[in-house]
Amino acid sequence: MFDNNYDGEMKDQKYPNNALIPISGMVYHRNNSRGEGTPTIIRFMVDTFTTVDMSSLNTNYTKNVTWDFEDVKKGMSSFWIKFEQGILFNDKTTFNFTLHMDFNNQRPPNKNTDTRLVALSSCGFSGYSGYPNVPMTTCSAIQDLPLFLFASKTGCEQDLAILHPEFQIQAEFSRSESYPTTNILSTTKFWSPPIRTGTRWEPSIIVEFLTIMSIVKIKIDFPANNRGPTQVRVDSSVNGESFMRGESVRVSFDKFVKFNEPVIGRAMKLVVVETNDVTPTLKAIALNGVKFYGCKYTKSENITSDFPQMDVMPERKQISDYLLRNKGAYSNNEKSYRHFVVNPVENLVFTCDPSGQYRDKTNCYVYNMNTRIWTGLPLYIRSVMGYSKERNRVYFTDFHRESLLSSLDGKRIEVTSWIAAGNITSLAGWNPALAVPGEPVTKEPVPWVPTLVSGDFYGLSVAGKKILNWQSCCL
Known about the structure:
Layout: E1 2-4, E2 14-15, E3 20-28, E4 36-47, E5 50-59, E6 65-70, E7 76-83, E8 92-101, E9 113-126, E10 138-149, E11 158-159, H1 165-168, E12 169-171, E13 173-174, E14 204-221, E15 229-237, E16 248-250, E17 256-275, E18 288-296, E19 329-330, E20 339-343, E21 348-354, E22 362-368, E23 373-376, E24 381-388, E25 393-398, E26 404-407, E27 414-416, H2 418-421, E28 430-432, E29 434-435, E30 446-447, E31 453-455, E32 459-462, E33 465-469
Parallel strand pairs: 2-10, 13-19
Antiparallel strand pairs: 1-3, 3-8, 4-7, 4-9, 5-8, 6-7, 9-10, 11-18, 12-14, 14-17, 14-18, 15-16, 15-17, 20-21, 20-29, 21-22, 22-23, 24-25, 24-28, 25-26, 26-27, 30-31, 31-32, 32-33
């Protein structure tokens, strides 16, 4: 009687394509056997995606043994072992071989498969002690071993390495130096954007891959007891500046964002659309453990037969430059985030706040506390540097921080020479701009001493009365 002697854990394992599985078994007589099998043949049947390494076949049978493999293109394939002299009563004949699962990679990708290794034994009965009374009778037995082949990974599910995160990862704004953008790759630290509300504000982070990639899924995590994303939008770009808006996708329970169609681009912007917490004024969003899965994007081009074929193609220099400029800013930086300056002599409040709609744009205004009128400052002004008591002027810089400008009344803006003005910040009575960082609403207001002007989570106030709302400037 034939019997398989497989290890129990093999039945619960899952095998990928190209897996090599060792198989062993034993052929012997049961106690109620009434004849010796001559000859004995064991036939194994496998699916068309599986083959056997014929060189791995081995047995302790000392007499003549033959085997062969029958390859069938469709359906089942089979191979068999034949013990020419049969199996005697006292014999315990072992055999072993190696199965090669899906050796030719023909099994469809992304599709799990349940298959079986079927073993059949057949033999002839030789007479023993007068039984049976006929010269030959056939016998047979059958057993099978379930094998589970999990879906092989497609070639475009590689874990993409980000070799230079300090250059390849950037956020428009980060909460502070304690939460840099590179922390999105960490599992112990995290990146955090400023705490801010309003329809114009969508916390986002940009990752550049140095070449156009095809992204099939993204893993996104956040620390426990923190506010994290439950829905994100992935925008794509080929130049790092203009992004094509993507669709919003839910973060699944396994922390993956999966796409129906690959997202193609050189730079990807992860935009947090929805979070797991409804207290945006108290908790900052946290993001870490981010991984991108995909491959380099290749577009096949059809070449006609009459297209001139060249044996030697021109050499192409494989050089890539970083697309992203270092424009990320921290919310506690008065030069890049929302800030304000007060001219107490003229009763003027100057403030700048980055636009939530345009990445490189800053909105700057001046408020006259006497007339209670807001006036927009020229668009070329990037930030307010501070107020000089000695000169009774407020100073500004442009976007590139190359030009120095100043104003006495907030209406007339004058270009000032850096050389002529000298080191303004070292003059007596210099008061630098004050930043209003993206911290929780519980943070104390930032006052401009000795005036009654202060800034907090919601906006700017004079003597406790709100004059500006960050969400909808200006009141």
